[in-house]
């Protein structure tokens, strides 16, 4: 017998089942349970209430994402838990999504759609909204056919090539036209950003960019080191728009520093492309500060995700300082070396230095400023680099 829902006076939150698959032939350094834990965070950030997790291990990918027996199990779980949505931990093809919705009888979305939804809720600037609009539109285009339920009854084929398919083609043309418009607007924004960057730097000032996993504390670190007021929240993707400020280094010289959108495991390629303009600051940077939440149980995996995605973007060779942040959550004082145990799990060979910080407590800010200056100093300038941070 199906359970009755309890009524709440709070905002409605869709009840969701999370589904993940471990394909043994496709090894992943990120464990399935860890990936689903993050998917659960994403679901909550989007306004859903995850009530169940379903997993399956397979030797090779299935055309329907999960096997026939698992679909039947899912359908039974959907019926008896009265969920509204089933969320899959990987991107589904349009056919997979359509088949699963038919079998399960509820809304089916994938990790990509979920991340897009979270981004859409967080975007506040014109540029951010345009980038989300671009990504969502590109995601929607190949899925238009599935939006037309009346075509399911027609079945397609002989005798059915009528208004339904004509409408789909009309929609496709409209969507492509929309894509063209959004891309042009983003190009205009990017041109303006390039001009602003040149005005800020005077063409020769050093550029530093904060990069890292979402919710690693980049914005808090940015605020502390620049005395700014960028929004800080303990939530995924609180920053979607690049913010740039001037920072002063110990010798009295200045540099520009930018806070950028956070990365996430299985970041959809369409989002990487859409946010390339936002990440332009990182692409142009002379130095990257890769921020890691040292208190996270997935800190090493998150650091690797960021490094991999930076390499995919073509900026893997830019000098990087590893910033182990949120030290206050694992240590009682700034002198305790607990965070350095992370160095055994993170490939530090890709970093020039390691600095431990707590943006909340203000720990390590002087060390960080000195490490930045040592890295971006012009040849011949003495910054006492051997006394700064931890060389690796």
UniProtKB/TrEMBL annotation:
Mg(2+) binds at residues 219, 239. GO terms for molecular function: GTP binding; GTPase activity; metal ion binding; ribosome binding. CDD domains: HflX. It comes from Candidatus Lucifugimonas marina. HAMAP family: GTPase_HflX. GTPase that associates with the 50S ribosomal subunit and may have a role during protein synthesis or ribosome biogenesis. Monomer. Associates with the 50S ribosomal subunit. GTP binds at residues 212-219, 237-241, 259-262, 325-328, 358-360. This is GTPase HflX. One of its GO terms (cellular component) is cytoplasm. Its cofactor is Mg(2+). It is found in: Cytoplasm. SUPFAM superfamilies: P-loop containing nucleoside triphosphate hydrolases (SSF52540). Residues 206-380 form the Hflx-type G domain. Belongs to the TRAFAC class OBG-HflX-like GTPase superfamily. HflX GTPase family. Keywords: Coiled coil, Cytoplasm, GTP-binding, Magnesium, Metal-binding, Nucleotide-binding. PROSITE patterns: G_HFLX. Residues 172-199 form a coiled coil. Its main location: cytoplasm.
């Amino acid at each position: 017998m199906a359970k009755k829902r309890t009524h709440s006076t709070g905002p409605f939150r869709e009840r969701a089942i999370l589904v993940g698959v471990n394909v043994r032939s496709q090894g992943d350094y990120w464990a399935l349970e860890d990936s689903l834990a993050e998917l659960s965070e994403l679901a909550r950030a989007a306004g859903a209430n995850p009530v169940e997790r379903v997993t399956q291990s397979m030797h090779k990918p299935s055309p329907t994402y999960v096997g026939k027996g698992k679909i039947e199990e899912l359908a039974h779980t959907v019926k008896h838990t009265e969920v509204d949505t089933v969320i899959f931990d990987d991107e589904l093809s349009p056919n997979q999504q359509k088949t699963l919705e038919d079998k399960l009888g509820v809304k089916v979305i994938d990790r990509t759609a979920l991340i897009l939804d979270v981004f859409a809720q967080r975007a506040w600037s014109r540029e951010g909204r345009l980038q989300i609009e671009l990504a969502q539109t590109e995601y929607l285009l190949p899925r238009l056919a599935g939006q037309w339920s009346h075509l399911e009854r027609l079945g397609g084929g002989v005798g059915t090539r009528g208004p339904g398919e004509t409408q789909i083609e009309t929609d496709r043309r409209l969507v492509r036209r929309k894509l063209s418009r959004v891309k042009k607007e983003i190009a205009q924004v990017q041109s303006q950003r390039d001009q602003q960057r040149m005005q800020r730097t005077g063409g020769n000032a050093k550029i530093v960019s904060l990069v890292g996993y979402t919710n690693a504390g980049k914005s808090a670190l940015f605020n502390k080191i620049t005395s700014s007021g960028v929004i800080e929240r303990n939530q995924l993707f609180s920053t979607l728009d690049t913010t740039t400020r001037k920072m002063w280094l110990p010798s009295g010289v200045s540099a520009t520093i930018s806070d950028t959108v956070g990365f996430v495991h299985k970041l959809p390629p369409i989002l990487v492309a859409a946010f390339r303009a936002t990440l332009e600051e990182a692409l142009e940077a002379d130095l990257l500060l890769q921020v890691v939440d040292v208190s996270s149980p997935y800190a090493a995996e998150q650091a690797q995700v960021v490094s991999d995605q930076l390499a995919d973007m073509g900026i893997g060779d830019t000098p990087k300082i590893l910033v182990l942040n949120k030290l206050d959550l694992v240590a009682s004082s700034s002198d305790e070396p607990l965070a350095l145990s992370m160095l055994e799990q993170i490939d530090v060979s890709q970093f020039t230095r390691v600095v431990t910080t707590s943006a909340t407590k203000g720990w390590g800010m002087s060390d960080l400023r000195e490490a930045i200056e040592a890295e971006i100093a012009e040849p011949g300038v003495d910054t006492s680099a051997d006394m700064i941070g931890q060389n690796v």
